[in-house]
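Postdoc handover notes: sequence design on the structure in folder B. Input tokens:
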């Protein structure tokens, strides 16, 4: 093509539209590859290739080209788009699954305008708010989004404890999950591989990351006589040596209903122990609801 033909090509409306669409698709494919959605990126690259081929084969501007020019253009376009695909594949940031933020960022905030009634824990001078079934995710150790090297974990949000006795308590807890012929027991200390610790080595504990002061409530927890903790507590259970089956289970999000989850709580001062099949207790209710007032009266809050 001569310089005059190139100028005419660039100035033609159909070519301008083509170049805009191709540029959009290529930029979108680069962004998709950066998010580790390589299938979407390849689809955009292929779409760009089809648009270019359609222009070469069917546009009125290219119909004057000799067959060898058209053939050469198609070969060049194929090599260009294949090179973009190989480049995106080579430099994609993560392998495997889509990067997922740390679990602490995935849990929803507490409900405004709701009351959280207390339920007495059997065999312990202790009451708790509703304890839902655990949610799975990543602990957030190491670089954010590097999921393949991260520890998986379970978390339970909106858990408050109330010491009903006249003596101090030191609570420890663990989570037991059973299903498909297997049993998994995880302590509540929040420790992962290589002595990594929630609230010390996770993503949110890094300087400048935790602007909202989010943290995990970990075992053990000391309670003064008649002390009640905040409803914003979120207890976490890191699985330091989880195999692929455990990782797949945790990454389903909410624990599937066919699995049995039990929260084991014990007081290290008295040695008393309780097992709570989850979910446990009374769910939150609207603060102005009659049932809410009844629950608060039962819990001694009114």
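Designed sequence:
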């Amino acid at each position: 093509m001569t310089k005059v033909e190139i100028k005419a090509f660039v100035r033609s409306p159909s070519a301008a539209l083509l170049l805009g669409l191709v540029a959009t698709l290529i930029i979108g494919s680069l962004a998709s590859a950066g998010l580790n959605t390589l299938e979407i990126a390849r689809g955009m690259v292929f779409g760009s290739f089809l648009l270019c081929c359609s222009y070469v084969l069917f546009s009125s501007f290219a119909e004057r080209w000799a067959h060898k020019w058209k053939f050469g253009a198609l070969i060049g376009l194929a090599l260009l788009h294949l090179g973009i695909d190989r480049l995106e594949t080579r430099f994609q940031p993560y392998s495997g699954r889509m990067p997922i933020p740390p679990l602490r960022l995935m849990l929803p905030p507490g409900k405004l305008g709701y009351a959280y009634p207390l339920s007495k824990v059997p065999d312990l001078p202790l009451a708790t708010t509703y304890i839902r079934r655990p949610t799975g995710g990543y602990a957030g150790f190491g670089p954010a989004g590097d999921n393949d090297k991260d520890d998986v974990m379970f978390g339970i949000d909106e858990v408050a404890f109330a010491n009903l006795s006249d003596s101090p308590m030191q609570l420890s807890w663990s989570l037991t999950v059973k299903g498909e012929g297997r049993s998994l027991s995880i302590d509540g200390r929040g420790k992962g591989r290589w002595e990594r610790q929630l609230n010390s080595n996770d993503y949110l504990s890094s300087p400048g990351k935790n602007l909202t002061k989010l943290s995990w409530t970990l075992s053990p927890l000391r309670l003064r006589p008649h002390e009640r903790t905040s409803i914003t507590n979120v207890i976490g259970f890191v699985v330091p040596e989880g195999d692929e089956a455990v990782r797949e289970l945790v990454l389903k999000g909410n624990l599937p209903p066919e699995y049995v989850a039990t929260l084991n709580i014990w007081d290290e001062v008295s040695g008393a122990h309780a097992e709570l099949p989850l979910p446990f207790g009374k769910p939150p209710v609207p603060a102005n609801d009659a049932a809410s007032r009844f629950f608060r009266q039962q819990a001694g809050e009114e």
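Context for whoever picks this up: Residues 3-90 form one domain. Don't rerun without checking with the PI first.
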